[in-house]
């Protein structure tokens, strides 16, 4: 326990494990009688680190303290090293968990993989949390249950925290998105009877389903057809259908296709109902999809719980980024308690070796990938599309909203802790269907589209 | 078979025959011919058996549904986490919600119906509200309930409350208003106090009509809870059906449907027995 001994006490020897007791029993008994709380222990650890750095030789430290006294030494060191600030910084994230029993809502799709797998694979448990991951029927319900505080945090579509914060489609409530769940991993699936209509120009009059109005799926589908000259509001019909109901609707010929999260696309292939027309990674390589979201209130009220929860999910994400782990994850999340799908369907989604519904086996290892970093430029792109399709009216301070909702700093710090490499900047340029997006010029980007609903 | 035997056994035998014919047609129309595989072996491993033969996945046969149903009945109370519980537990959740909402509705509807039935003035005052509110689909209240009550399980109970209140209210009012004039006149002649008149004359006379309203209500409540739980999710038999829809498992959905039907029948029969108890021969 030498870690937590007071280094300002000249009597204490830091070099040994514990030099003051004859055996471990006496040591434990004594320690138990004056156990320090976690906070005191952590500041003690900071003090030690500083003292060890200043006096690499323990004998020197003891001589120095004996000569000037502990208080003088403390004052002297504090002059050139901000000990108090260091203690505080270190204590962050080390405090006790305020609320160990949590409820996190999810929609049964592979986008939620890091959130779901944390439960059966024990990431929540190891973080000292007892989390119930609760399956929810649709995005509107997950939004309402999170706003009602029935859920402490939830799996959401990445545009949702932006929409909630701005009060688009619900009451405005400050919301935060500390992590993206997955990148890529969606697809456009068409009914088998449209096998020969591979050119979007032939899709006039088609009925499409997307999971939610405020979803990447909606924006990507609109973008895709608009780039091919179709007006998504006039030439095709787009309706919001919860993912689990999409295959049933496609089977019943209620819709001609959908841009949906997996395993819905793969399930349509598995049941011989549809074929995968294009993966969304071919529309925008590395696009964000789903997110881990929590209210600002939760983040500020339970900072340690929030950090522990986020870190558990980050660790799960780090595990999921490695392709060799994907089969194991598929097995963990396929049962009825989570996705409720045949294991092979989930496995095809996660490993990227899949049947495309046209008789080919395709190998696309990055069909879905996991990268938690909430790029501010993603938020800005989403906001431009919200404006483009008339969901958001008036002027928006793109950068400010992005900064407040997409918590890049927290994500970066925790990513480092779990061994992922966060980027040094929070905004980047990217291309969607070959057209470059510059996050510093959102209005110019918006103006460059021919098909749009901006007034 | 004697005439008496035919009277006793005829109906059950006919029921059985109808069931067998139904199962036979179902079996014949869902029998799967193992068609030739139209894709290579590697591809076939990745898709369902039907997709490998170039078809859509098929409707399950009666035997498949029977096997699933047996599986559910053999272990109805397992609990494998918050999203995977046995069919018995799910039914218990649904019944608890229905009874809570239903009893709350009865507590409001019967006294209010009494008041409305006894006074023509109150009846005419309440009538427009009842007429507007009655035809609203209970599920249309759901988003409103979620928004205002801020709790999904309370919202589900509220939806049951709002859907089961109207038949009880209207039947109580009707039953109370149509108590025979002579009986009320006799009570007046004997100078019976108002409370005693309500409890000893009007209530027994109106009881069969009130019970009929309650029987209609429990039926509606049971219909609605399934839809409400499909919408809100979490627990209950409606969630069970939704969860299996998510998995496109028609056999499991049919098991759920059968369980819903059986429980609905039991609830209805209980109310029917209660109605007989309060009915008296004139």
Give an overview of the whole structure.
The complex is a heterodimer of chains A (455) and B (282). Chain A is an alpha/beta fold and 455 residues long. Chain A has 3 domains: 2-91, no CATH class; 101-183 and 288-447, Periplasmic binding protein-like II (D-Maltodextrin-Binding Protein, domain 2, 3-Layer(aba) Sandwich); 186-282, 3-Layer(aba) Sandwich (D-Maltodextrin-Binding Protein, domain 2), CATH 3.40.190. Chain A has 20 helices and 16 strands. Chain A has a 5-stranded mixed β-sheet with strand order 2-1-3-11-4. The mean pLDDT of chain B is 85. Chain B is mainly alpha-helical. Chain B has 12 helices and no strands. Chain B has a domain at 87-278: MetI-like fold (Orthogonal Bundle), CATH 1.10.3720. Classes of the chains: A alpha/beta (455), B mainly alpha (282). The A-B interface holds A 108, 119, 132-137, 140-141, 144-145, 148-150, 192, 244-245, 247-248, 251, 267, 269-273, 335-338, 340-342, 344, 348, 353-355, 357, 359-361 and B 38-40, 42-43, 45-48, 50-51, 54-57, 80-84, 143, 146-147, 150-152, 230-234, 239, 242-248.
Could you outline the blueprint of secondary structure elements for this entry?
The complex is a heterodimer of chains A (455) and B (282).
Chain A: H1 24-33, H2 38-54, H3 58-68, H4 70-80, H5 83-91, E1 101-106, H6 113-117, H7 123-126, E2 130-135, H8 139-147, E3 153-157, H9 159-166, E4 175-180, E5 183-184, E6 186-191, E7 207-210, H10 216-227, E8 237-240, H11 243-251, E9 257-261, H12 264-270, E10 274-279, E11 290-295, H13 296-301, H14 303-320, H15 326-333, H16 343-351, E12 353-355, E13 361-363, E14 368-369, H17 376-388, H18 398-405, H19 408-417, E15 430-432, E16 435-437, H20 442-447
Chain B: H1 3-30, H2 41-46, H3 49-52, H4 62-74, H5 87-118, H6 120-133, H7 141-149, H8 152-177, H9 181-189, H10 194-232, H11 237-246, H12 250-278
Helix pairs in contact in B: 4-12, 5-6, 5-8, 5-10, 5-11, 7-8, 8-10, 10-11, 10-12, 11-12
